[in-house]
Amino acid sequence: xxxxxxxxxxxxxxxxxxxxxxxxxxxxxxxxxxxxxxxxxxxxxxxxxxxxxxxxxxxxxxxxxxxxxxxxxxxxxxxxxxxxxxxxxxxxxxxxxxxxxxxxxxxxxxxxxxxxxxxxxxxxxxxxxxxxxxxxxxxxxxxxxxxxxxxxxxxxxxxxxxxxxxxxxxxxxxxxxxxxxxxxxxxxxxxxxxxxxxxxxxxxxxxxxxxxxxxxxxxxxxxxxxxxxxxxxxxxxxxxxxxxxxxxxxxxxxxxxxxxxxxxxxxxxxxxxxxxxxxxxxxxxxxxxxxxxxxxxxxxxxxxxxxxxxxxxxxxxxxxxxxxxxxxxxxxxxxxxxxxxxxxxxxxxxxxxxxxxxxxxxxxxxxxxxxxxxxxxxxxxxxxxxxxxxxxxxxxxxxxxxxxxxxxxxxxxxxxxxxxxxxxxxxxxxxxx
Length: 433
Known about the structure:
By secondary structure, the protein is of the alpha/beta class. Helix content is 33%, strand content 25%. The chain has 3 domains: 5-91, Rossmann fold, CATH 3.40.50; 100-283, UDP-N-acetylmuramoyl-L-alanine:D-glutamate ligase (3-Layer(aba) Sandwich); 294-430, Mur ligase, C-terminal domain (Protein-Tyrosine Phosphatase, Chain A, Alpha-Beta Complex).
């Protein structure tokens, strides 16, 4: 790899920023482009990686490898120039697969929970001295980023199903958290999604751990959370079972689904030979992932939650988790749909699960990599609601809507995979936190 210069197009993305940091720490020359500054670009700049916020063809001419994300259009000037020059051009998934080739890859795939499961797996290995390298799709609070440098032998990799990226990997072992349909713009239907997960399983050389309820995955270790209960303020206990026995764990993170994520990670490491006692002790220090059921008590009768849920099943589980943790409280969900295609595919399902909240505020769709599609909007969802939602045209209206709807005790939830997280500090400040 000596003498390579990596040019990352879309370097501020969660996955791309981790890759750029990895190659930088490997001693390679790295530069990047993104549309605007972000916490990720600030972090990379602080490491000494030059980042441009407008196309710079001269940077491409200095490069030997160009990596880009699906958010970069095919007619982007730097991408066109790289191809004109005959440079090696890689999609992010290809560059990630190349980066982890020297390691024993522990891959986490699935429609839901893969970021949290990957982060738990990373923390446990780190805490037990295994020194993993990790590429995780969310900010790990234990490490302050999405990437962890390590000497191995393990690499923890969040295996994204979008664009069939997970099928680029050849994992030593894997966890599949869910095989539910998503990204139907790629796979067509539920059968196509399941076939992709089955193909992923066939690429795994060793163990594959799945929740007991997951169907269609052969030769897997099945894990079941048999008991989950609140044992005190911010303390939760769960019992999980797999072929090797039954374990009981106590920790500080909300939700049965989050407990299942932990059980999957604990089980995989136990079958790999790590001590169950040491694993349980290490789990106590896990700090969570930003935007994954992140919560803060604003007052004795008021809680704020920031959550990444953007699929109907995730929304239902988040609301159910909050009902369980705060029985009898009003739940106000401020939801920003993510992608026009997902909104169109799951419009009725979104409506059904949002009905579980007491009040719903719908923000405009966050398009991400997709072009503006005027015939799809939040009305595509709201037309199916029995109880009408409040529809607003801008995130800035969020606090006004909360004031109108709020009846304490209450849980206020900012939910979505777009930029709704930018309201978090406004919400905390609004209530004096």
